[in-house]
Write a structure and sequence with these properties.
It contains 19 helices and 18 strands. By secondary structure, it is an alpha/beta fold. Helix 11 links the parallel strand 10 and strand 11. 37% of the residues are buried. The structure holds pyridoxal-5'-phosphate (PLP). The site of pyridoxal-5'-phosphate has 16 residues, from helix 8 and strand 11.
Amino acid sequence: MRQPRKRASESSGRAEAGRDPRRKVPSLDRLLESERVRGWEERWGRDLVKEALRSALDAERDRLLRAGGGTFRTGRVLEMVEEKLEAAERPSLRRVLNATGVVLHTNLGRAPLAPMAVAAMEVGARYSNLEYDVELGARGSRYDHCDGLLRELTGAEAALVVNNNAAAVALMVNEFAAGRQVVVSRGELVEIGGSFRLPDIVRRAGAELVEVGTTNRTREADYREAIGPRTGLVLKVHPSNYRLVGFTEEVPLSGVAAICRTAGVPVAHDLGSGLLRPELLPEFPPEPGVRASLDAGADVVSWSGDKLLGGPQAGVLLGRGEAVARLRRNPLLRAFRVDKGTLAALEATLRLYRDPEQALREVPVLRALAEPVEQVEARAGRALARVRFDPPARVQVRRMKAVVGGGAFPGLELPSAGWMVEGLPPEEIESRCRAGTPPLIGRVSDDRFWLDFRTLLPGEEGEAAEALQRALRAEANEAEANE
Ligand SMILES: *Cc1c(COP(=O)(O)O)cnc(C)c1O
């Protein structure tokens, strides 16, 4: 490590050597002997510490050279190195506090799980009877574990769980229409969050897409004309993340199913969010429930486990016995297969739905959607009464608007409440909250910083308050340092 330094000082020229600001930077060996750095070595090992110090010293030399002088700030440099070592130790996937007011926030992992679902995942983490029939002492199927509960809760003849809803849609298309045609209304060719575009999925699943109707209007006659000898499947898609308003017309699923029955063609319904118990959200606009879709005559319906259900990432397929049996035999199922931890969490989540009141209490997504705004406001108020913020920061309880997110109930605003933070640049508070441990994620609007308490999980209010306190303190420190 001495070699490169020697070369560096030679290149800067002998005459200037005396004025080279980089001479102020201590040697790596000297820092390695300091008490503080020795402590680090015990924690992180000598190699990691040496590497972190070396790159910090290099950066400091560059900085001094560019500035043409200055002082070497040992304390500041060591602090930066320690931060870097700590960051390297942190797992990449970490918990965050969601105060964004977006209940199903795709970037923040969509649905947080019920405590019982989290506990169940531990079973999946060990040896389990995943594919073993304990009573018979023979091979079993992973697909049997949620089957009974799903049939009980929905009245479906058969069920199948895969990795996510995108996989479920691809599986349906592939099984019923590979090498043939899939008929879809032009008003339903959805794109969900960037990577799921229905036309692409249909094509990659080996089928040809036949679009019917226009963007805003599709009639029964459009379906009848499009269905022919090459039709493998008619697919209805719930336009979950957008709404068609104005001069519009669509054929309800029951109408499409009747046409398909006459033609002898299966009909599938991609429900997107899949609300299991619409009656639990009486204040919400009507959203097609899982049972309603089956009753309307779909041969198979599919939906996500981690949207309105509030469970783990999964794709749930329900439908007629023979249709689901065909999906079970499709070789692609192996590529889409659901993980054991997911199955355990899904089973535990579904079990909560046996008692709707319990589901409302314990499934965090349902709880967040159904909590009266007065109650959210009271939680925000109690949390504020327990902390103090130094000027210039001002924190007040305010009403605000939350949204469902995850492509469900587009355009719907949920009355919500939380904290409004003023007195400092909101972008600065936002980034400092984000840099904390755990990161506190809020939002900036109207030149203020907002923390929505509807999306904080029960018990996280105090943690969020402390995170904000630390962030504002860091802001104050920074301001002093710059003066
Ligand atoms: C969300 C959604 C999907 C994709 O589901 P994932 O579980 O994210 O794979 C597909 N179709 C519709 C209509 C959706 O809303």
